[in-house]
Write a structure and sequence with these properties.
Layout lengths: L1 H12 L13 H36 L13 E3 L1 E3 L2 E4 L2 E10 L2 E5 L4 E6 L8 E2 L4 E5 L2 H58 L4 H55 L1 E3 L4 E4 L8 E2 L4 E7 L3 E8 H7 L10 E5 L12 E9 L7 E8 L12 E7 L3 E7 L8 E6 L2 E12 L4 E5 L6 E3 L12 E3 L13
Helix pairs in contact: 3-4
Length: 460
């Protein structure tokens, strides 16, 4: 009995804290401890959140109010032009190159060693028409002239000899014909006498023999004359051939001095003293200074417009500018030109056009120089000339009460310096000429310039 009680007491003492047995007297103390723990885990975070929210509400309610000012609208500075309707003849500003209408490759006409060269036979040099460009050693060609002259003289001597023999044979032939005639008449007479018994048969035979001999001699001389005529023809052919050989030798001798065919500028010079050249070797390229022209291109739309209604580009006037103002205050020098022709075929959707200088081309120009050319466009009635910068996607902006207003226009022609439009733009309206980025209706602007209304009249 005693051991049993001790074991029970031992089991009670080893239970964990807060775990009470089934005894009803220990149950209230376990419930209160657990309730306090739950209270601490729930109520404290709620109180912290409530305190933070209260602080946020207080700070928001007591923060100073900042007064925001509406940004002030700024006016955009623009340039304007005044609209003036009328007849407009714009100019097309195009770009092209100077081209040589006439150029030749100067080539050696004879072979040999170059003994002299003109000072102007250098890259960019100038040559006058007829000026000796270079000299080739003439020794061999002088010898050829001597040989050809001697051969021709020899042949002409033989011709003279044959002519003398022909004359001699012709005289002998005449005597032979005369003798043959006498012999024939004598023979005929003897034949009559033999029949009458006046002469003998022997005399007739002797006469017939003489007649035969004279006829044979005559035939021989006639054959000799034919031989002489053939020899004369042969010598005439030889004389003609040798005469040509002499002229060829003389021409080759003259060609040792190569001359400029016209006033020219030298390009690709390739000759110097001591150089050996062969026939047809290129010496230089000569560009005629009086045959320069302008070559430029027209877009298909421009070409179609300029040739509309059967009009021709030929003889259309223009102005060429070759000294462009790349630096400040640099002068521009214009030269009048006239369209002379259009290339036979279009190239890449454009048309090559050629224009000639109305006066002498500037000496400073060279083939390949880039130039600017202004060609008169068509004449448009009831049109308006504006700067190209005034166009905004088929519209223009007018200024009314210092604010922009978009106006739709019909674009008739656009060039580098001028655009021609039609539309509901009355005279005196101010059109913005300054290029604008993302312009909108009603945008406030300020005028940089105050143009005056021009006098009425046609617009150039």
């Amino acid at each position: 009995m005693h051991n049993h009680v001790d074991d029970r007491q031992l089991r009670v003492e080893t239970l964990p804290q807060g775990v009470i047995g089934t005894n009803s007297t220990d149950k209230p103390r376990w419930t209160i401890g657990r309730a306090l723990r739950v209270l601490l885990l729930v109520i404290v975070p709620v109180l912290v959140l409530a305190g933070g929210l209260s602080a946020f509400v207080y700070m928001r309610a007591t923060k100073p109010k900042v007064v925001t000012e509406r940004p002030q609208e700024r006016a955009r500075l623009v340039d304007v032009v005044i609209v003036r309707r009328g007849t407009v003849t714009p100019s097309l500003r195009l770009y092209g190159q100077i081209a040589a209408r006439r150029s030749v490759d100067l080539r050696a006409l004879v072979a040999g060693e170059i003994t002299a060269v003109a000072p102007g036979l250098v890259e960019g040099g100038s040559l006058k028409a007829g000026e000796s460009v270079l000299q080739i050693d003439p020794f061999a060609y002088e010898g050829a002239v001597v040989r050809a002259t001697a051969d021709l003289a020899e042949t002409r001597g033989r011709v003279a000899e044959i002519d003398a023999r022909v004359a001699q044979e012709r005289a002998a032939l005449a005597r032979g014909e005369e003798q043959a005639g006498i012999a024939e008449r004598d023979n005929a007479r003897l034949r009559q006498l033999v029949g009458s018994g006046v002469t003998t048969q022997r005399a007739l035979d002797d006469s017939s023999l003489r007649l035969s001999q004279s006829q044979a001699a005559l035939e021989q001389r006639q054959n000799q004359m034919a031989i002489y005529r053939a020899q004369v023809a042969q010598l005439a052919a030889i004389e003609a051939r040798q005469g040509f050989a002499l002229r060829q030798a003389e021409r080759n001798l003259a060609d040792v001095a190569l001359k400029a065919p016209f006033d020219a500028i030298v390009s690709n010079a390739a000759a110097d003293v001591g150089k050996l050249v062969n026939v047809n070797d290129r010496i230089a390229t000569l560009i005629a200074v009086d045959a320069l022209e302008v070559r430029f291109s027209l877009a298909a739309s421009q070409y179609t417009r300029l040739t509309s209604d059967g009009q021709s580009l030929q003889d259309r006037k223009g102005m060429l500018f070759w000294a462009t103002d790349r630096m400040a205050n640099a002068a521009r020098s214009g030269h009048a030109v006239t369209v002379s022709r259009v290339a036979a075929q279009a190239s890449g959707g454009s048309y090559d056009v050629f224009a000639r200088f109305d006066a002498e081309a500037p000496a400073a120009l060279r083939p390949g120089s880039f130039v600017e050319i202004a060609i008169t466009d068509l004449t448009f009635s009831d049109a308006i000339a504006l700067p190209p910068t005034a166009l905004q996607d088929g519209h223009v902006f007018v200024v009314s009460d210092n604010r922009l207003r978009r106006v739709l226009v019909e674009i008739v022609s656009v060039g580098t310096d001028q655009a021609v439009v039609r539309g509901s733009l009355p005279d005196g309206v101010l059109v913005v000429a300054t290029p604008l980025d993302a312009p909108v209706d009603g945008q406030l602007v300020s005028l940089r310039n105050r143009p005056a209304m021009p006098a009425a009249g046609p617009t150039p």
